């Protein structure tokens, strides 16, 4: 629209300027031609009566008679003859006459003219040399008499000023009309563009069934048609990917569920074999212990897969209870025999309480501390304190710090991804590769955040921030554990 208005403004201005120039030239040319014709006529009529050589009085009378040809009295005439000068107005300095015009009249027999601008007015100055002829010669000998005329161009200047005003008055409506046309044109162009913008935003928000109405056959209609084809292809691809993802999740959940029954039987058998391993020969005892360890790892992996499948299916729920957070962390360490292994910096009993799911908080702390013991180096420290955190409101901050080599910079952004292992850590470990992913999901369910970083003095630090809320959350469920879809199956 701005470009349209600028083009219209430039066009109107250029047209007005050209029109003004031509009109001004025409007005001045007509005025000039009229004055020159009148001057020639008057000089031709009066010059034969002037007897040369003439004195100053005859020259003054001749100048007055020439000036009298104009009824309005606007003419001022200067007559020059052999060094004598006389004007139609007594003591007229005739300032408009320039040396260049005098020289032009002296050097040629033609009539010359010049427009002279003064501070308060513009004047037309005309000069000519008077010649005579006879029937015996075809030449025009000069008499030495020169006539100069000055005419103020007040009327012409008024015409020019009126023309400028008219051009200005015409340009404003033209520009307003151009802006109006620009608005109409922009509206016609921007309407489908706005519709395309809203449709694109709708697609970005997940409404993949958004389509545009295609009207006409111009470039915007072609763009709308292309958008509809792209949206349809995207919707089909996303639906296919979601179906594949749902089948993959279902497959993982089904496999995990189906493995639980044989694993339970295998665990019972390996427990019996562990008790009798001392009485077996060394090779058999080693094999029994290996089977027992691998069965435990497999059981842990199946449990983690079941937990992840609950998160993916949206079946995981929070069973919140207001508890003493420090006491909960002490129980987590004691239940796994880490009381003497991990340095705990916890507040006094009942100093920091919050509404959390005790089982999921236990999983979070156990996963982080276990990860620090397996992949870091001792001493490992567990801190709990209250802080503002990264969000608004009071928050409980849990930190797990180790003294190991830290986490490589290229690995740090991926530590919470499922089954992710860096190049330097691809060896087989006790973990399932899902512990930190489960930790992140549990923290997110509480409305908190978890992040990993490296300490300046060495080692890694995992920081969990949980909101200390007192209100009843919307995701709270009855305290009785409901069976999941996989468990009901």
Give an overview in words:
This protein has 489 residues and is an alpha+beta fold. It is 51% helix and 16% strand. The chain has three domains: 2-132 and 140-161, 2-Layer Sandwich (Beta-Lactamase); 219-312, Signal transduction histidine kinase, dimerisation/phosphotransfer (DHp) domain (Helix Hairpins), CATH 1.10.287; 317-488, Histidine kinase-like ATPase, C-terminal domain (Heat Shock Protein 90). It contains ten helices and twelve strands. The strands form three sheets. It has a five-stranded antiparallel β-sheet with strand order 2-1-5-4-3, sandwiched between helices. A hairpin with a 4-residue loop joins strand 3 (112-117) and strand 4. The radius of gyration is 53 Å and the shape is rod-shaped. This is histidine kinase. It is an enzyme of class 2 (transferase). InterPro entries: HAMP_dom, HATPase_C_sf, HATPase_dom, His_kinase_dom, HisK_dim/P_dom, HisK_dim/P_sf, Sig_transdc_His_kin-like_C.
